[in-house]
Amino acid sequence: MKELVAICAFAAAVALLPLVVNSGFVLNLVIMTLYATLLGQAWNILAGFGGQFSFGHAVFFGTGAYAAAVLQVRFGWNAWAALAAAVVLGGAVGAFIGALSFRYGLRGSYFALVTLAFAEVFRVLANTFDFTGAGVGLMIPLGTSAADFQFASSAGFLYVILGFTLAAFGVTLWLKHSRYGAWLQAVRDNEESAAALGVDVFRVKLGAIMISAALMAAGGVFYVQYFHYIDPHIAYGPAVSVEALLAPIVGGMGTSFGPLLGAVVLHALGEFTRNLMGDAPGVSLVIYGAVLVAMVTFLPRGIIGAFAARRPARRVPRA
Amino acid sequence: MLEFSILFPSVLNGLTTGAVYALIALGLTLIYGVLHIINFAHGAALMIALYGVYFLHLTLGLDPYVSLPVMVPAMFVLGYGLQRLVIGRASHGKDENILLVTLGLAMVMENLALFLWRSDTRTVETPYTFSTVNIAGAMIAVPKLAAFAGALVAAAVLLVLVSRTDLGRAIRAIAKERQGAKLVGIDVEHVFAMSFGIGLACLGAAACFLLPAYYVNPLVGNGFILIAFTIVVLGGMGSFAGALAGGLIIGVVESVGGLWLGESLGQIGIFLIFIVVLLFRPQGLFGART
Amino acid sequence: MLEARNLSISFGGLKAVEDVSLSVPGGSIVSLIGPNGAGKSTLFGLISGFLKPDAGQIAFLGEDITGLAPHLVCRRGLTRTFQIVQPFAAQTVRENIAVGAHLHHRARREALARAQAVAERVGLAPELDKLAVNLTIAGRKRLELARALAAEPRLLLLDEVLAGLNPNEVGEMLPVIRAIRDSGITVLLIEHVMQAVMALAEYTWVLNNGRLIAEGRPAEIANDPKVIEAYLGHGTAERLRAASAHA
Question: For A198, which of C50, C71, C81 is closest by C-beta distance?
Fold first, then answer.
């Protein structure tokens, strides 16, 4: 399959990078781009493939991040074990929110808003309780051992985030070639028709949000291990939710490479802007916001969609 | 805790805050009722309006209440322009697209403010900022009382506008039956833009009433967004009376909730109400079941 | 095969379907006709699980399916199409049909292969790689039919599958529907195109204002004054008879 080849090429290129490049700056940029890709891939599964747009995806990210932080700091868990628990917990939160929302038929804007509300609820909760560090947040002690999911050099982190994005690519490929994926995309395109063809719409949507949530949680764990710090605003605030949706929308929703392409474009744009305008606050986000508006207006199927061979022709008039 | 002397001022404060919330939500209700747009940029637009009032005060010495005749039309123009030139163009008909466009606009507005005016919190001081009035033993700040009165007046004006004027009739026609409205010759694009403009004009008024009792920084809008949505949903999408009632209810819930659970946890009550209403009674208190 | 007994449903104050009973024998093509707004699609909705009846029961293949969710009804072997076609617009014809095929075939490759086979049966083979949104109305109707067929139903409910087609296209579809019956699938059609009803259906029910007003062989029904009145208005039957008496 062409896509598999492309993914392998991508994996190889990234894997070889630390051997060729010594600059911490470049490595960090690639790491952050892949991190954004992961978040985008997670969002893309629920929105691009499943048609459910979440505006509060941070709720899963924050759960993963806090799970990892709390388990390590308060209970002395090993970081990798904490990762596993965090991913499972993320999926469980996904199941909870999904079950409630989909059981009661929330779709479109209402679903988007409800996810935002949940993110805010979690933010306030994290901000209140001491065991999550309240407003001050939690710090993960610095380490250098891979066994602790800490690395002396960036290369270690690069390989981990690469591993996560490859896992997400795996999920995406599976969605494109499996019965479940066909059902999910059918639900996205027309729920009623899907139901009439035997698709259990509720179960399918629930599966998608759980998978999406688990991947976001993994992103949250990575964040904590890389930056050693988490607080309620970072974990559950709008920044992560927006970051998750920007890349797929720019790159192309419902495609495998959309999130990666979008993340690359956005980070390149961000760097370019920073070179031009220095580190003035808010500038890159202004640009991102403008890009979002522009994409939705002119290129709703993203960059990939603009180049796709399939362009719907003008509608043939009824006989 | 349930002592009258503690509860009563809390409820009164809640009502005054709630009235401003209602004013913010009224604009959102109009925009939703007519355009079926859930305007994600509402909070950011409020923030812009607050900065407008702030700078009018800073540079021209204009008292916030005096700024009303400036801010309301200015925000109207902003709203009209945004809908006509940006949002209208982007709406390929899909709900989610519009949500994303308004989100993008919010990002642009917030971060432009951040870039231009940094993240410092700013307030205005007026001669009456700290004066209070004694209502049956509760000390209520004058700016908040003014806000309460202003919100009621604005709601009344809006109601008259929608029920008595030609524009109002057109708005109601489009809200009920878009295609039909087009067929009878109503300039739908224009009415959409007018509605969005009025919605933002409400924010202009709200900002004039809010700033004396509150503050502004680039991220202040975020705090209001979910609250405004909660009110719109609680009151029943598209119902003005509902938005007003909803606003007052939410204001009181926040205030009394804060008594029991502390400031930050008290806010949770609002979000939980939002979730519960969306799940179990999506038509709100006053809306009709679709 | 299908037994509906005393089905009723109201929306607000409106009785959309009132006390309707019918029995579909296996291996036949039967039809449901009636003027617009008679409640035919509503009845389909009740049978296929999209609507829950206020009263009455539905039994399919001897088992009670009243109130069962649509996807479960489909899994039992009862599939329906929609009056206003609802394709998976962003997907190709092949992918569209494959969704139906997946009901009984888990592997992707197999589902796609079966989709091809079904497309050939209904004459959609040349359009397999086109996006559903690019098809003509006739193509979309066939796609709607093909998708439902791919789910390998025992009973197929077709909701105005011929509406919007020109006479040529209708002519092309008739043998397709007959072939479906010949392959062992029972077909219940809602149709307005009388030529098709006459040509295809062995038995027909007539609905008006939510109630069953007549049933029988299509040729007999056509002369039933109640049916004529339902379509052409009160007193028409009299006037027609008077006119032909004079002529």
Answer: C71
Q: What angle do CA C102, C105, C107 make, to 5 degrees?
A: 95
User: Residue A239's closest CA among A139, A158, A123, A157?
Assistant: A123
Tokens linked to B65: 């209440």
- Chain B residues touching residue A291 (CB < 8 angstroms): 104
CA distance C17 to A263: 54
CA distance A295 to A281: 23
- Pairwise CA distance, residues A291 & A269, whole Å: 10
Residues forming beta bridges with residue C158, ordered by sequence position: C189
The residue in chain B having the minimum alpha-carbon distance to the alpha carbon of residue A280 is: B115
**Contact partners of B by the rule of 3+ C-beta pairs under 8 A?**
A
Q: What is the pTM of this model?
A: 0.91
What CATH architecture does domain B4-118+131-280 belong to? Orthogonal Bundle (1.10)
Q: Do C137 and A198 touch (CB under 8 A)?
A: no
Report CB contact under 8 Å: A300, B97: yes
Query: Using CA atoms, how far apart are residues C15 and C28, in angstroms rounded to an integer?
Result: 30
Task: Kindly determine whether residue C108 and residue A254, on different chains, have CB atoms separated by under 8 Å.
Answer: no
Give the span between the Cα atoms of C131 and A310, in whole angstroms.
Answer: 8
Q: What tokens were used for A64?
A: 């993963």
What whole-number distance in Å separates Cα of residue C57 and Cα of residue C6?
A: 7
For residues A249 and A43, give the distance between their C-alpha atoms in angstroms, rounded to a whole number.
10
CB contact under 8 A, A289 and B271: no
Would you say residue A244 has pLDDT above 80? yes
DSSP A31-45: HHHHHHHHHHHHHHI
Boundaries of every domain in chain B:
4-118+131-280
Q: Is A2 helix (H, G, I), strand (E, B) or coil?
A: helix
Contacts of C48 in chain A (CB under 8 A): 196
The encoded tokens of residue C85 equal 């076609």
Size of interface A-C (CB pairs under 8 A): 96
Decide if A319 touches C, using CB distance below 8 A.
Answer: yes
Chain C, nearest residue to A178 by Cα: C108
Average pLDDT score over residue span C155-183: 91
Which class for B119: exposed (0-12), middle (13-18), buried (19 or more C-beta within 10 A)?
Answer: exposed
In this structure, the strands spanning C78-80 and C155-159 are parallel
Residue A312 C-alpha, separation from nearest chain C C-alpha, in angstroms: 6
**Stretch among A188-192, B94-98, B172-176, C238-242 having the lowest mean pLDDT:** C238-242
**Whether A179 and C148 lie within 8 Å, measured CB to CB:** no
A74 to chain B, minimum CA–CA distance in Å? 23
Cα distances from C91 to residues A170, A315, C19, C140, in angstroms, run 22, 16, 40, 13
Contact C82 A179 (CB under 8 A): no
Pairing mode, if any, of strands C186-190 and C203-208? unpaired
Extents of the domains making up chain A: 2-232
Report the residue from A177, A189, A197 with minimal CB separation from C91.
A189
CA distances from C50 to A243, A292, C9, C74, C94 (A): 38, 38, 12, 11, 26
Percent of chain B with pLDDT over 90: 21
| Nearest Cα residue in chain C from A49 | C90
The answer to whether A164 touches C69, Cβ cutoff 8 Å, is: no
Residue whose structure tokens are 């066939």: C142
Q: Quick one: which of B77, C26, C100 has its CA closest to A198?
A: C100
Chain A positions in Cβ-Cβ contact with residue B109 (cut-off 8 Å): 289
Q: Does A203 touch chain C (CB under 8 A)?
A: no
Domains of chain C: 2-246 (3.40.50.300)
Q: How confident is the model at residue A318 (pLDDT cuts 50, 70, 90)?
A: very low
d(CA A129, CA A70): 12
